[in-house]
Amino acid sequence: MKRSIAQKLANFRDNLICTGIILFILSQLSIIFSIDFLDVVQNTVEDFYITDYASSGGFPDIEKDTNIVLVNIGRLNRKEIAEQIMIINSYKPKVIGIDATFFKPKIHYEYSNDIETAPAEIAQVTGEDVTVIPSSAIPQDMIFKIDENPDTRLLDTFYLTAVYDTLDFYLEYAFLKTENMILVNKLENTEDKLNFDRVSKPIPRFLKHVKTGFANMITDDEQDYRTVRYYAPYRIAGGDTINSFAVEITKIVAPDKAKRFLERNNHKEVIRYRRNIDKYITLDYDEVFSKADSLGFLKDKIVIICFLGSKINTVVTEDNFFTPMNKSYYGRCYPDMYGGVIHANVVNMILDEEFIESMDSWPEWVKIFLITGSLVFFNMLLLNFIRIKHDNWYEPLSVSITFTELFLMFFIIINVYKYFFFEIKLVALFYAIILSGTIFETYHGSVKPIVVYYFNKILGKKNVPGGEIS
Amino acid sequence: MKIFRLDHIINTVLVFSVMLVFPLLSGIEFFEPIFVHLKNFELSDINYKEIGGKDIGDAKIILVKSNKLDAMKIDSLLLKLNSGDNMPKVIGIETIYPVDSDSNATLLFNSLKGYNNIVLADSLDKYDSESGNFESKVSFDNNLPAVIPRGYKNLLIGLDKEHFTVRDYYPSYKYKGKTIASFSTQIIKKYDVNAYNALITRDNEIETINYKGGSFSELDYETIMGDAHSVDFKDKIVLIGNYDQENEFTACVLSDLYFTPMNDRYSGKAFPDMYGVEIQANIISMALDKEYYTLVPKVFNYLLAVFFVYMNMVVFTYITVKNKKLYELLNLLIFVVESLGIFYFSGLLYFGYRVEIDFTPVIFAIILSIFAFEGYNESLKPLAINFYYKFFKRGSP
């Protein structure tokens, strides 16, 4: 009886040690994967999000959204965009959002190094498609500039002689005439992905007439070619809270829903993708002009003007992202969704108030020590039981357990995501299942016998041959 | 240490039996992308960009963008290129201007007959995966005079460009019962007969591409047509094809692009990185410099895998017999050392000696050898012996 209890305690101790070893390895994964050779393993696993399988290939049966209209901005210049906006606005949509940056003025300055042309006598050129800029509006630092003359190697002074404002004038006018216009800004420089140093905004003359929201996408490692799975509802920049582009759009269309979305107070939300470009009403840039008289369906719609390729059917790399709706949930593939369509999905998600909850914000100790640790300890109990009671069956059973657990893990994660809209995020669990058998065998087969052997040797005790398992 | 034992042979057979069964999983929808990934992945990709990716281009080859150029402009471009003493030795037109779909193409077609340095590209179409043949061909005109050489420009035959990397190409291919040359082969033939003969003598169905990167000289229509241009085309190869990238931040049309081993990311999601015409330039440059890869037959890869598995069995048995306590630690160590060794030697052979050996079966076999050894010795064999004694000898071993 006493021996049995001692044996059980020894087994319990071994199981704890094995669990501890695995948890220690899991806590050091980032260091282990920093080894060049193992980078390939990390790269392979990092790209593998099992929840993507649930959305892969999209949802062919879902109905087309009729609330949002996507308009391709193509390669239009600012004047043409202004004309596009004027046409769209004439049909009174609820809101127009433009997912394009207007951070720099499109004003062309001309300089002369003719010293006779004094700054006070700046010649302002007028002509077709040229707007005169009042002298007072010209920034002081633009009036003259000093450059090195490459021929003489001397510094030359250049005086501003002409200012061409051919494009921004029209756009400013279009913004002025549009009741609800949202532009994008861009958050710059962050260390914690929540607080940003500054925000790049549209030029002041546009800002007077519009609202803005940031359009930054959350990707796994801030690289354009990573998959966009999450969305930032708000961020802090320079001490101010700034809402995202989609939130600003929904604030106009459905302020209560936008408020409830923000009240969830999640730093990042899992995007509930439902539709790609084929499930939205789209207008190519030239269609806005060619069908200018028959766009009545735009009334009371959310219009998002964004880049959808140089033509809608020409798929290009610019502003194109990988999403979980990609046909291929793993490995090489083409990007599948333009940034503007991602924003449209987020707007849909906020309006439908159908969110995906995530364990991403759960404390690490719960995910690694409680959940993963429990499973590892259970595995150790199970493997120990098999080893003691059914030694001959150990090898096939341990491999079967590993595959069964992996299968169950994938099955549960995919289905909980698909049917219960909850994202289980336990990368450590995957490694834990893989490592369980190996660590168990290494501990019982080598580490423990070797330690016991030398321990007995030091204490002068007699070693028993074999005895891998106590 | 006993080298030849029945147990080693059984274990080795066990490993390869599992490897034979493994691909059956690819039929399950869930595993499909994983198998595509495994099929596409090669060890050499990991270091290709750093070690193999020379990105040096080739001064003999000049790329000319054909984007947004109609057949008429191509006609005037050819006229300009072929005027004076500065004319290129070969002009390859990778963009296809079918005569029946473009009225200007007829004009170009007629002009082409007047030049003797032109090579045109066709595109083999409608691939039948069962027979491995193409059913049709997209070309300028099927009635082109024989004096104008033409070759197919297809790069990935039977593989989807959205998922697969262009590592190799077919110098020639069967089409409607005849063997036809590729676009690059035709250019090589016209430019340098010795290089062409070297390629033909190799008699390889597939050649691995020795990439020199994307740093080839590029010119656009306006530059060449402008009076001020001073590019020396003499004895050069000019390749005219879709090759449009305004700058690194602007759009590339995905349908024109391919994945190559030069990609910044060696696996997983990434943007395709090279235009078809750039890949043709890499192939031509490799052939002209005769810098080919030596392809080791697949059977050698499997023989190597058999060797590694068998030797592992011998070593594992030796360790178990000598000191079982060390087995678990040493098998992990052996796996790590073997993997690192293969990783190193595959890189050395591939990048140092241009010898391509596919070590993927070896890696898989090594991983499986550990499980097979333990599974066989700890479970399968004792259970089989017990079973034998229980039912045939009516006793215990």
Description of the molecule:
The complex is a heterodimer of chains A (470) and B (397). Chain A has 470 residues and is α/β, with parallel strands linked by helices. Chain A has helices spanning 2-27, 29-32, 39-46, 52-55, 78-89, 140-143, 168-177, 204-207, 245-253, 255-263, 285-290, 339-352, 364-389, 394-420, 427-459, and strands at residues 65-72, 95-99, 108-112, 144-148, 155-164, 181-190, 195-200, 211-214, 218-219, 228-231, 234-237, 240-243, 269-270, 280-283, 302-306, 320-321, 337-338, 357-358, 422-423. Chain A is 42% helix and 18% strand. Residues 117-130 and 466-470 of chain A have low confidence and may be disordered. Chain B is α/β, with parallel strands linked by helices. Chain B has twelve helices and 15 strands. In chain B, strands 1, 2, 3, 4, 5, 10 and 11 form a seven-stranded mixed sheet that branches. In chain B, strands 6-9 form a two-stranded antiparallel sheet. Chain B is elongated and about 95 Å long.
Layout: helices, strands, pairs:
The complex is a heterodimer of chains A (470) and B (397).
Chain A: H1 2-27, H2 29-32, H3 39-46, H4 52-55, E1 65-72, H5 78-89, E2 95-99, E3 108-112, H6 140-143, E4 144-148, E5 155-164, H7 168-177, E6 181-190, E7 195-200, H8 204-207, E8 211-214, E9 218-219, E10 228-231, E11 234-237, E12 240-243, H9 245-253, H10 255-263, E13 269-270, E14 280-283, H11 285-290, E15 302-306, E16 320-321, E17 337-338, H12 339-352, E18 357-358, H13 364-389, H14 394-420, E19 422-423, H15 427-459
Parallel strand pairs in A: 1-14, 1-15, 2-6, 2-15, 6-8, 7-11, 18-19
Antiparallel strand pairs in A: 3-5, 4-5, 6-7, 9-10, 10-13, 11-12, 16-17
Helix pairs in contact in A: 1-13, 1-15, 5-7, 9-10, 9-12, 13-14, 13-15, 14-15
Chain B: H1 6-21, H2 32-40, H3 45-52, E1 61-65, H4 71-81, E2 90-93, H5 103-112, E3 118-128, E4 133-138, E5 150-152, E6 168-169, E7 172-175, E8 178-181, H6 183-191, H7 193-202, E9 207-208, E10 217-219, H8 221-225, E11 237-241, E12 257-258, E13 274-275, H9 276-289, E14 294-295, H10 298-322, H11 327-352, E15 355-356, H12 360-393
Parallel strand pairs in B: 1-10, 1-11, 2-3, 2-11, 3-5, 14-15
Antiparallel strand pairs in B: 3-4, 6-9, 7-8, 12-13
Helix pairs in contact in B: 1-10, 1-12, 4-5, 6-7, 6-9, 10-11, 10-12, 11-12
